[in-house]
Amino acid sequence: CTEHTLTGTLAIAVFTAVLGSLQYGYSLGVINAPQKVIEKHYGRSLEVWTERAAVLSENGTDEGEFPEAGDHPSVIMYWSLSVSIFSIGGMLSSFLVGFVGDLRGRVKGMLMVNVLAVAAGLLMGLCRMWKPHFMVIAGRAVMGFYCGLTSGLVPMYIGEISPKAYRGALGTLHQLAIVTGILISQVIGLDFILGNDDMWPLLLGLSGAPAILQSLLLPLCPESPRYLYILLGKEQEARTSLLRLKGAYDPTPDLEEMKSEKEKADREPRVSILSLIRSSVYRQQLVVALMMHFSQQFSGINAIFYYSTDIFTRAGVAQPVYATIGVGVINTIFTLVSSEFLWMSYVSMAAIFLFVSFFEIGPGPIPWFIVAELFSQGPRPAAIALAGCCNWTSNFIIGMTFPYIQEYLGCYVFALFAVLLLGFTVFIYLRVPETKGKSFEEIAGVFRKGRKKANPDDGTELQQLKTSTDA
């Protein structure tokens, strides 16, 4: 039996898939390092800033000009939009993950969406051919649309092809690849490499490079056996795919498991997004799922992702979700104190490093995993779509508003996130059940206990949901 053996084909398939995650991470972090350089080009293109006027302003000759291009309101607006439009694209495409994955399969789905990544890279790489602020914003929007799709397709494919013994470990590679992509973007975004006046369009354009490599490797990857059997009913093709992924072994137990899952999925009709929102049966699970995603984004992590210039050159990993919240509060305290004592700035920087590293092992991946654990086959696709939209919407709000909040609150900016984190900590402690080692029925039972007391008619509503043609 080769259940505990990693085959070369499986390794290639997982590596190929996480190239999409690497690209997501690169796109997330690449806008960070060259901020000042890009703002200058925006200022020149908008004709609101020149080097000469800036020098005169610094010398006190012309008070009407801005010494920094990034100080001009128009540049601030376009820069904030360049950062946050990425999330709008992801927000829109998050609803399409299931559709794209089921349309032609996981592998062909990833191959199709790579067209978006290459187009986005070209828009940003050639931004000097027209107005750079428009070209960059357009490229970021398209790249965000791509990342919204790939951030769902990659974990879906890896989860479906991984042997049980390695499912958890291989599943974390999605998040690891994102962090690696961020780190790469920060390193090559340094001013003496690509983050300078001459090379910054290439830096942004390289966002689409992993898609080219992935497109060359995807034809070598087997399709998901679960997709082939459960969705298409192609048992023989699923068997062939299993043998390619796991080597020479008896695939009968795996096929029997898929058969059972297929029968269950066929019995339980899918619940639409609108039905899920309206239903009180799944409301508690939905509230928990959405709040987990809110807590991920409103921790303030994307303020660091988007706006800090060198924070990810030392990103590490350790500790679970509750430690992250504690470190976030500590980081806030040290940030406030550092405004009074110069030496505390080093302590504050160390706290930020810890905050980032704890995030990547805790609330980074957990909200995505927990949604699948809280919902059964019927409502799961609708719940994942709503959670994805919630995550990307929150991401957009942070990306768009942070510069203005920072301008208003100054060094106290993370105090706002600390208050939110305190509220999320209380909610998680009181309302989020432990899911480790529990079946869906056991998890659902936790929610049913409290729900029956509040609404004894839930059983009737659940039956109506399951028999409804709208579901």
TrEMBL record:
The chain crosses the membrane at residues 76-99, 111-131, 137-158, 170-194, 286-309, 321-343, 350-370, 382-402, 409-430. GO terms for molecular function: D-glucose transmembrane transporter activity; fructose transmembrane transporter activity. SUPFAM superfamilies: MFS general substrate transporter (SSF103473). Residues 13-436 form the Major facilitator superfamily (MFS) profile domain. Residues 461-471 have a biased composition (Polar residues). One of its GO terms (cellular component) is sarcolemma. Gene3D superfamilies: MFS general substrate transporter like domains. GO terms for biological process: D-glucose import; dehydroascorbic acid transport; fructose import across plasma membrane. Keywords: Cell membrane, Membrane, Sugar transport, Transmembrane, Transmembrane helix, Transport. Belongs to the major facilitator superfamily. Sugar transporter (TC 2.A.1.1) family. Glucose transporter subfamily. This is Solute carrier family 2, facilitated glucose transporter member 5. It comes from Sparus aurata.
